[in-house]
Amino acid sequence: ILKEFDLHYYSCFTVNESMNITKRAADLASGTECDQTKPILSLLLLLITVYVGVVIFNFKYSPYLNANKRVMVADYALVVAVAVGTVLGSYVFRHIDLGKFYVNEERPMFKVITFDNPSSGAVLAAIALGCIMSILFFMENCISASIVNNPSNKLKKGHAYHHDMVVVGLINAVMSVFGLPFVHGSLPHSPLHVRALADIEEHIDNGNLTEKIVYVRETRLTTLISHILIGVSVLAVPYPLNMIPIPVLYGLFIFLAVTSLGDFQLWERLVLIFTEQSLYPPIHYVRKVPQKIIHCFTFLQIVQLVVLCIISFAGSAYL
After folding, report:
1. Over the stretch 58-105, which tens digit does the pLDDT of each residue have?
2. What per-residue string of b and e applies to 122-139 under the rule 16 or more CB within 10 Å gives b?
């Protein structure tokens, strides 16, 4: 979105010093058009997607219908939000190019990668990068498994940590041969999947609403069916997936981030900075850890998050 504003909005007002005319006039003179509607409409579609999704997601807290129907409506918040954004972007504003989901149809989906006699340096570099990726997969899988098997979820079946790593390793070996993306422990999808299968009770303690998992339906069918549907979605490439505008996809990711903030302890501690101490919720670490230590730990995490974002958006291949 920022790139769209930089290319099609702010650049229209820059001054061409040599000709003493605006950039828009220079573009018109050169035969190119400076379209300011594209970045504004992109931002509007993004906000509409997020707003529709959040409103429908929060419907489960409304007094309308009964509890089961409210939860059912909230479960389809993401689908409805993407559908609304797609209709607006691909039909109502179809005359404006907002960017679409791109698929390279010339490259076959399953093609064995040829290595063409790599040098010894390339082999050593691949081994080093492979070790780093293995460590990353191991850590992410362990983190996902530990969150899913948290005692508060009250799961009864075995953990199968090592089985997960074996399955991930075998699948990634096949993916590497065809040059396809790797699989790994998914955050936050795994904890959200457990939550979707759980019966949750709400309690009010000193004016604070807390949720407690009572029972989780432990089954492999939901995971199996969902991944089968993900595989079937390949048939929707490129059509109709290419009808979804790029701003709608951005809104989708922001919606996922906004709706999952309440489950992150970092967000809870960040809110505590601006909350009066007498109104702190009865959380276990609030009762045991001094306020100063909590805020210092939160500050260190924010600094690490900022550094991570700087490295991620630096655009350098070596960061």
Report:
1. 888 888 888 778 888 888 888 898 899 888 888 888 777 777 776 766
2. eeeeeeeeeeeeeeebee
Enumerate residues 6+ apart whose C-beta is below 8 A from 21: 15, 29
Rounded to the nearest 5°, which phi and psi values hold at 107?
Answer: -85, 125
Structure tokens at 308: 């991570």
- Written as six digits, the tokens of 189 are 């999808």
> Phi and psi (nearest 5°) for 205?
-120, 110
State the Cα–Cα distance between residues 223 and 132, nearest whole angstrom.
28
Condensed to tens digits (0 to 9), the pLDDT of residues 116-173 reads 778 888 889 888 988 888 888 888 888 888 878 878 888 887 666 667 788 888 888 8
pTM of this prediction exceeds 0.70: no
SS3 assignment for the chain: CHHHHHHHCHHHHCEECCCCEEHHHHHHHHCCCCCCHHHHHHHHHHHHHHHHHHHHHHHHHCCCCCHHHHHHHHHCHHHHHHHHHHHHHHHHCCCCCCCECCCCCCCCCCCCCCCCCCCHHHHHHHHHHHHHHHHHHHHHHHHHHHHHCCHHHCCCCCCCHHHHHHHHHHHHHHHHHHCCCCCCCCCCHHHHHHHHCEEEEEEEECCEEEEEEEEECCCCHHHHHHHHHHHHHHHHCCCCHHHCEHHHHHHHHHHHHHHCHHHCHHHHHHHHHCCCHHHCCCCHHHHHCCHHHHHHHHHHHHHHHHHHHHHHCCCCCCC
Could you give the C-alpha distances from 316 to 6, 58, 202, 304, 310, in angstroms and in order?
A: 20, 39, 47, 19, 11
Cα–Cα nearest to 79, from 226, 230, 255:
255
